[in-house]
Amino acid sequence: MYNDDAFATMLLTIPLSADRAEYARPLNTAEYARLLARVKSSAAERLGALLHVDISGLMMLLGVGEEEAYRLYTLLHRGVQLTYALEGFLQKGVRIITCFDDDYPPHFRARMGAAAPPALFFAGERALLDRPAVAVLGVSGVKTTPEMRQSIEGIVRGARDLGYSVVTGGELGVSRVAATLVAEVGGTLIDVPAGGLLGHIGEEPMRALLADGRMAALSLEHPEALFTVSHAIARNKLVLALARAAFVFNNDGKRGESDMLKRGLCDWLYAFTGFPGNHALVARGAQPFRAIDAEEFHRLASRWKTSFTQQLSMFDKQ
Length: 318
Description:
Strand order of the largest sheet: 1-2-6-5-4-3-7-8-9
Number of strands: 9
Order of helices and strands: HHHHHEHEEHEHEHHEHEHEHEHH
Number of helices: 15
Distance between the termini: 18 Å
Structural class: alpha/beta
Shape: elongated
Radius of gyration: 20 Å
């Protein structure tokens, strides 16, 4: 299923246990990007070529010290463990997509550049990742008011009408309200949970949406990893990179929304003014909104520029 470059990417970056109890720590995205640049400028040229190189060879090829070479060698020789893990994931409906696969979402490369994740855990309908999407964001533990629910329904209905998928972070609260409404009124859903992917896709309404081919789910974390705030920060970057526009209903100020606004991961970011914690986002440039119905969603969508499409067309695959 995977070429040598993709397999090497998984060996180097994928955690094989939920608690990351590994002999060697997998590379993070920044470390992977640096290694890939070294490989391309070396005699190896391709990442997959490292699969057959010993520790001293890695030191010579990449110009790294013995400790770093040992770490890379250890990761690259997890093939048996990775194969068993892949089989286990597939039996549960989860596969891995790497940056060397045709199925890798071009949105991430176009939006995130070198910060795009090298590999993702994925379940559901892959074609949904190619459709235009709009994000609905909120955190669990914050009351979802009737006013919020009315606007979420307006967004879901408007997205359905115009052929947009709804992207959420998969948390209880705003995200779960949006998922339930997608199931009830129609449309498609993309969930990006910050941990617990396997448990998430086994719950309703996600299970029914997956069975109907109306949902995709992806995660940076091991499918059985627990939710953490650091996972949520990384997850939110993916949510925004997938979306043409994003609507933030509430936030706890801990998940990098302001920084992501500064980086421009999403062309259009809207903040619900009925939640006091969103005032900082508005001050930093988010568009304020109080209420949205399907008609208002249509009006807003007509303003969203084609810059995202242009970015995708300019992207050259690795």
